[in-house]
Amino acid sequence: MVSNMSPALMLKMKKWGYLLFWLVMIPILPFSALVGRESGTQDYWAWFIYFVVFGIIPILDYIVGKDPSNPDELTEVPALNDEKSYRVFTLLMVPVWFGVLAWSGWVFMHNDYSWFGKLGWIVSIGTIGGVIAINLAHEMIHKDPRLENWAGGLLLASVTYAGFKVEHVRGHHVTVSTPEDASSSRYNQGLYAFLPHAFVHNFINAWRLEKEYLARKGKKNISIHNELIWWYGISFGLAALFGLAFGWQGVLFFFAQSFVASATLEVINYIEHYGLHRRELDNGKYERVTPAHSWNSNYLLTNLALFQLQRHSDHHAYAKRRYQVLRHYEESPQLPGGYASMYVLALFPPLWKKVMNPRVEAYYQGEMDQLFRTGKRVNNIA
Questions:
Q1: Distance between CA 228 and CA 186 in Å, rounded?
Q2: Which domain holds residue 115?
Q3: What's the confidence (pLDDT) of residue 373?
Q4: Is the model's pLDDT at 249 over the cut of 90?
Q5: Which of 49, 204, 234, 357 has its CA 20 to 30 A from that of 22?
Q6: What residues contact residue 373 under an 8 Å CB cut-off, 6+ apart?
Q7: What is the C-alpha to C-alpha distance for residues 273 and 295, in angstroms, rounded to an integer?
Q8: Burial of 269 (0-12, 13-18, 19+ CB in 10 A)
Q9: Is 381 domain-assigned?
């Protein structure tokens, strides 16, 4: 529908598109909490947000179509980078999310849900947490200004996933698409084999990387200088506040929505690099990261929802680029749908492999040995 639109016009419209998308999405939260109470169907409506994100949005993605705009590096990118409105909007979403989280805890306790409704509400809010808290944190932790970097840490603390702040930047972006990276799924690896390894490895690796970083600075690991202690401390402080406000069920809600949010992130990680590996060079090292090492998707609607996370190839090639100037690479490996639809597909490994394995095999045609490698040392990065 929008694929034939003028790229220049689309670029102007997208400035407000991010805001417009969330102005439409946020009211769905109170709607799904309030509707059905008179008829006794509130347990089913508790799942409505999850259905919207992974049911309605995938359909709308195909109807709306792909984004025709790609900012010109010389004439458009500098101006877009200087526009503060993009930065202000992401920072404003921080208090919005904390307001949503606190209100959601109140709904969890007072909306007369059965166990089925409570589960649906946890899954729905955790999904929104994955989209707002973790996704926006991902945008911010790559930035140098302390306000943004710390805001990203605070968002991650709200979903008890502080390790991502360290492991993603110092680990994943270094070893992406190599066997050392637990967030890069292997060819023919099912989602449910990927998730446990990703959770455990990334948590442990975050502490290892922080310890090594502090050692290089001549500082002790268990000290006020360890940022993971601070961020996880904030997480447990928030859990305590939920406990004071809502009792043990409030603590349950806080940690349960955190788990759903972090699981949502790891499913997206599974999608972003499935089967793609940096080739081994003659010197035994891996080639440098390029846009060819991430799956790209250019569907407009999900890109607005995720602040262009789907233009993931550009993000990994240039990690500090701001979301509004991320570019689409047609020559990069392309997903057949947006992240929302691919998330649903990933939940069913046989279907996922049927769709994605031929695409991976086509990418590695003539060098299939690249798909079955074992790990090497992390210092084997070119």
A1: 28
A2: 7-372
A3: 57
A4: yes
A5: 234
A6: 179, 277, 280
A7: 6
A8: buried
A9: no
The reply to whether 337 falls in a domain is yes
Give the DSSP per-residue string, 116-152. HHHHHHHHHHHHHHIIIIIHHHHHHHT--SHHHHHHH
- Domain count across the chain: 1
- Tokens 């694929």 sit on residue: 3
What is the Cα–Cα distance from 9 to 230, expressed in whole angstroms?
44
Assigned domain for 377 exists = no
Confidence of residue 38 (pLDDT cuts 50, 70, 90): confident
The answer to whether residues 152 and 158 touch, using CB atoms and an 8 Å cutoff, is no
User: Could you tell me which residues are beta bridge partners of residue 286?
Assistant: 280, 381
d(CA 48, CA 83): 35
Q: Report pLDDT digits (tens) over 148-191.
A: 999 999 999 999 999 999 999 999 999 999 988 999 999 999 99
- In sequence order, what are the beta bridge partners of 299? 66
Contacts of range 52-55, beta carbons closer than 8 Å, 24 or more positions apart = 52/25, 52/28, 53/127, 53/128, 53/131, 53/340, 54/127, 54/340, 54/343, 54/344
For the chain, what percent of residues have pLDDT higher than 70?
96
Closest by CA to 280, choosing from 191, 197, 372, 354, is 372
- Phi, psi (deg, nearest 5) at residue 381: -110, 125
Tokens of 258: 């955190």
Does the pLDDT value for residue 13 go beyond 60? yes
Q: Worst-scoring range by mean pLDDT, 5-9, 114-118, 156-160, 350-354?
A: 5-9
Domain-embedded: residue 379? no
Whole-angstrom distance, CA of residue 231 vs CA of residue 252: 19
Using CB atoms within 10 Å of the CB of residue 58, give its burial: 0 to 12 exposed, 13 to 18 middle, 19+ buried.
buried
